[in-house]
Specification:
- By secondary structure, the chain is of the alpha+beta class.
- It has a domain of about 130 residues: ACT domain (Alpha-Beta Plaits, 2-Layer Sandwich), CATH 3.30.70.
- The protein is built from seven helices and twelve strands.
- Strands 7-11-5-12 form a four-stranded antiparallel sheet.
- Strand 8 and strand 9 form a beta hairpin.
- The protein is elongated.
- It starts with a strand and ends in a 24-residue tail after the last helix.
- It binds iron/sulfur cluster (SF4) (2 copies).
- The site of one iron/sulfur cluster has 14 residues, from helix 1.
């Protein structure tokens, strides 16, 4: 994103809209290109009285910023806009994981802080060491040059996004190893992540992942979701 210095009248109306705090004021507004994640909020907010914002099309690897941060940009590998994934919580339709398995997602970055891909790589590599399988239809997985180790393409490591989701599948038995690895990785990154564990419920309404998570003192914020109208299940679970 750029500001046209010939148009800007330094009214400061755009300043609160940037989720990364990348716009500052000099004689006119200026954007720090290293902090800007190309989310397009300043442009779409339409607060500039003189239309001074100029949306740019970038080449790889900077093009990844808009793909991960601008909800109107479609990820070309997954053909999904926004975070670029249908997410593990749609498993009842997609059948991403079966009974006895869980979806483990590290949702990295937030407005205000964002995330560099070198931190995404650190967390992915920590998860990979526990033997998780990374979700195939996920844009972070598409950036990996080695899906066994979680190594990302070196070209992208210094790029920044508003958020990026690392999605994986593993067994319920492997939960303690993944949580331990993520706790260690959390202390080694400049950003933040939230952890989502997606599971199918048993017939009595219980969840197999509850016990290991409680034993690990992981606070649970249970979030049930019924995706009415999302579609009919495309898979059949073996009885
Ligand atoms: S594109 Fe997004 S990050 Fe960049 S200056 Fe505009 S609001 Fe800020
Ligand atoms: S809203 Fe437009 S004119 Fe006002 S400071 Fe921002 S870029 Fe300049």
């Amino acid at each position: 994103m750029k500001v046209d210095p010939e148009l800007c009248i330094a009214c400061e109306a755009c300043l609160p809209y940037c989720p990364m705090g990348a716009i500052s004021m000099d004689d006119v507004a200026k954007i720090d290109p290293d902090e800007c994640v190309e989310c397009g909020v300043c442009f779409r907010a339409q607060v500039c009285p003189v239309d001074a914002f100029v949306e740019e099309v970038h080449e790889w690897p900077r093009s990844a910023r808009a793909a991960f941060s601008n909800p109107l940009v479609v990820h070309k590998e997954t053909r999904v806009p926004g975070r670029g994934t249908e997410e593990a919580k749609t498993t009842d339709v997609t059948g991403r994981f079966k009974r006895g398995f869980v979806g483990i997602t590290a949702e990295m970055g937030r407005p205000g802080i964002g995330v560099r891909f070198y931190d995404v790589e650190k967390v992915a590599q920590a998860m990979a060491k526990t033997g998780v399988e990374f979700a195939h239809d996920n844009p972070v997985t598409h950036l990996m040059v080695d899906k066994k180790t979680g190594k990302l393409n070196d070209e992208i490591l210094n790029e920044k996004a508003c958020s990026a989701m690392i999605e994986s599948i593993t067994t319920v038995d492997n939960i303690p190893a993944v949580i331990k690895a993520l706790r260690e990785a959390a202390g080694q990154i400049e950003s933040v992540f939230t952890l989502t564990i997606s599971t199918k419920l048993e017939a009595d309404g219980s969840a197999l992942c509850d016990k290991p998570l409680k034993e690990l003192n992981v606070p649970l914020y249970i979030n049930g979701k019924v995706n009415v109208g999302l579609g009919r299940p495309l898979f059949k679970e073996e009885s």
